[in-house]
Each structure stands twice: as structure tokens, then as C-alpha cells.
Automatic annotation (TrEMBL):
This is Response regulator transcription factor. The keyword Phosphoprotein applies. SMART domains: HTH_LUXR, REC. It comes from Kribbella ginsengisoli. Residues 148-213 form the HTH luxR-type domain.
Amino acid sequence: MTVSVVVVDDQPVVRAGFAALLGAQPDLSVVGEAGDGVEAVEVVGRVRPDVVLMDVRMPRMDGLEATRRILAELAPGEPPRVIMLTTFDLDEYVYDALRAGASGFLLKHSSPDELAAAVRIVAAGDALLAPSITRRLVEDFVKVRPVLPAAAAELTPRETDVLRLVARGQSNREIAAALVLAEQTVKTHVSRILTKLNLRDRAQAVVYAYEAGIVAPGPRR
């Protein structure tokens, strides 16, 4: 199955480079390009890709607002998965992008293999969460945001344990080892957590866990 991709970046050379790298993959197809957020909304709405590579900082409309509009305008159908592209590992826009529904983020200097793998990961329904970078980003920016009242009363104690480890950036395999569970059981718990909390994917689960106080910013504990 071929994964369709739209590449959005205001620098033509960068945009062309990403498109060429992805287009060289047998299972990936670049179906559109855009130079700013306004064009991105139009192109994505027209070609309906599986994944959008979205630059954060662009003229006319930045990647954050474009992501919000794309996900809002294409819902309640199957909106694309959005990967935010950023130059810096701590970018204030990325946190807001995760809250807006982006499925993760990727540094622009990532290798071609990492770029292709990122598209495949989010196309498969997973979140693109580099644990060390994501943890630093979320913990830094959640400190200056009010903690929302916990709305996780429907979660079982075991589901809460799983969510806590998801928020720490652990994979299903790592969670299974830590809680002495089968990996398939962890997958089931994650699916139920997303359903109960009305979250789209693991990226939103991470943000929710911090905002609801299930995980506190700071050193791992």
C-alpha cells in the first residue's frame, strides 16, 4: 500500500529535497507541495493525502494554524496525519501543534531514513515521539501552563499506569516489560485509553497526561 504525502515548507530547496527523498521510496508517493500554510490548506483539501510534512514557521499562515484548519476542515472523516518539521528540538510551536492534533514532530536535519520512517510510523496510526526531545519539550512548556482538572476518572488503575509510561515516551514493548504484561495487552490498554479520553493518538495522550497532572514535569519518577 502506497502512502501519499504532501510536503509543506516555505524554502523551495528544502521542500524539493524532502519531496525527492520521499519520492524515491517505493511505498511513498508525494502528491502535492505547498510553500506556506494558506497553500497547504488548499492543497491538502484537494488531494487528501495520508500524511502531511508541515513546516512550523512560514509566511502568511504558520504551520500551527494550517494544522488546526486542516484537521478541523477534514473532520469528521479521515484527516491526514501531520508531522511538524522544526529546526530546533525545543520549539514553542510544537507543543501547541500536538494539542492541535499533530501526530508528532521531526527535526529538519533528520536523515533520509529517519524521514521515511517517520512518515510510515504516523501513517500506521502511531505517534512520532522521540522520547528525549518530546519529554524535554512538554515538560518545559507545561510549566507555564495551568494544569487542567483531571478528567481521567474512567481510567482503571492499570490504564493510568500505562498512560503514565506512554507520557514518559516508552514504547509498548518497554511498557509491557515494566508492568509485566503481554505487549498485546498493552496495545489494548492504549486503545481503550484513547477511546475513553477521546484522544486521537499517543501524541495527544502525552499532552493530556501532563495537563491532567498524571505525570508531573521534572525528573523521571
